[in-house]
Design goal:
It is built from 2 helices and 18 strands. It is α+β, with helices and mostly antiparallel strands.
Length: 243
């Protein structure tokens, strides 16, 4: 019964993860999560009588972010940019916190600062804000160079991290790096103006996984009920024999 209960708990956590992925399948720059399981020994149940080995129980140890490329959707927006390949746009909040994103749906503030939809300032390669006069003709090159009325004014900061990205999610399409993790400029970033990167969630696959996980939960629930019924039946028989 304990093994079935542990399996049910793991399936519930998987359902939550899959549900969150599906709910954000339309969020620009969203990266899906994938769970990973492990088995652990427990002292709550006796060893297998046939092998004398300890029983193992499943648990969702955690989740890992899938940083795979999402499809690029053409928007024709002058301030819409997408990354093709690794890297993140660097932004800064009003509190001075550095956040990284793949969501390039930028806009201009009333002061002419290039910012995200949430109001975070978009940074250039030297860590400064980017100011663009209203009504200007804007061109963004493949390496993120911004040309305003034919003049280069700044280059978008596109950064990566050594090895596996150590960043964690800080909202639907933002990431933050732990203290001490150094962001380095991407070697050859590929920036496409007039495009946005869609979520990398595979909706049909996630839907199939959701159904399969629900069936697994129902099966484990049925197993737990059958074990409980058998235990109750034995208890009734033993109590009856004590009269």
């Amino acid at each position: 019964m304990l093994i079935a209960a542990a399996g049910m708990k793991a399936q519930i956590e998987t359902l939550d993860l899959l549900g969150n992925n599906l709910a954000n399948s339309g969020t620009v720059g969203f990266k899906g999560d994938r769970e990973f399981f492990r088995l652990f020994r427990t002292a709550l149940i006796q060893p297998d009588p046939n092998t004398a080995e300890a029983r193992w129980m499943p648990v969702v140890q955690g989740s890992v972010i899938d940083f795979g490329q999402g499809p690029l959707t053409r928007t024709e927006g002058a301030l819409d940019v997408a990354l093709s390949g690794p890297g993140f746009f660097a932004t800064e909040t009003s509190d001075g916190e550095r956040l990284y994103t793949r969501n390039g749906a930028f806009r201009l503030s009333p002061q002419g600062l290039l910012e995200t939809a949430e109001g975070h300032r978009v940074l250039d390669t030297v860590g400064s804000n980017i100011t663009i006069p209203a009504g200007s003709e804007i061109r963004v090159g493949d390496r993120g160079m911004i040309r305003v009325n034919g003049l280069n004014i700044a280059q978008l900061a596109v950064v990566t991290f050594e090895g596996q990205p150590p960043v964690t999610k800080a909202g639907l399409s933002y990431f933050q790096a732990p203290e001490g993790a150094a962001a380095v400029p991407a070697a050859e970033p590929l920036v496409k103006q007039g495009y946005l990167e869609s979520s990398n969630v595979n909706v049909p696959l996630a839907a199939v996984q959701l159904i399969q996980t629900s069936r697994n939960f129902q099966m484990l629930s049925r197993i737990a009920s059958l074990v409980a019924d058998e235990m109750n039946g034995r208890a009734v028989e033993q109590l009856g024999s004590l009269r």
